[in-house]
Write a structure and sequence with these properties.
Strand content: 5-15%
Oligomer: single chain
Order of helices and strands: EHEHEEHHHHHH
Shape: globular
Largest sheet: 4 strands, mixed
Length: 215
Amino acid sequence: MTIQVSAYKWVPDFAQGFVRDLRVRWALEEAGVPYEASLVDVMNKGAAYSDWQPFAQVPAYRDGEVEMFESGAIVLFLAEKYDALAPRDDAGRARVITWVLAALNSIEIHTGQMGDIDLFHKGEAWTKERRPQVVAALTQRLQQLSDCLGEKDYLEGRFTAGDLIMATVLREIDRTELLSKYPNLDAYLERCTSRPAFKRAMEAQLKPFREYAPA
C-alpha cells in the first residue's frame, strides 16, 4: 500500500506550517518516497482514529506492514530505511539518533514552553514571572547548540534526520527574539528550510488548510 500519514484538514492560522506531520512529510520528501495524507478533523477525529493514534494527535504512519505514531519515532524509522536521512554505518546512524533525541529532549522541552507562554497563555499574569525563567534556560541550550554547530553547514556535516528534527524545533522560536542572537543558528535554520524537500512538505501541509478553511 502507499504510505499513509495522518494530518489535519484545517487548523487556525497560528498553527499552520507547524503541525508535526510536517516532519514526516519532509522526511519522505527528502527520501523521494511517495505518500498520501489521511486527513482528519482536528475537532472530530472519530473513535476509530484512536486505534491508530491513541492520543488522538497527528501524525500517525502506516505502510501496510508498520503502523506507528509520534513524529520523532516515525522519522527515526524512516532514517533506518533511507540513505537520504542517515548514513549507513553504525556510528553515523547512532549520531543521527542522538541528534533527533537531543532536539526533542534538550531543546524542544524549552521551545515548547515558549510557545505555551507566547501563544496559548499570552497576557496572563503568571507568564510575566515565568517567561524570563524559560528564556534563560532556552538561551543556555541555544548557546550550547551554537557552540556545537560552529561553522558547519549541518550538525554532522551532511543533512540528516537530526537536522530535520532540529530545524522544526528551532522554527518554534523563529517568531521570537531569541534565534537572531545566534547568527550561525539563524543561518542553519534558513539553510535547512530552504531545501526543496522542506518547501514541498510545507506546501503539502498548507494545501488542505486552504481547501478546508472555514467560510
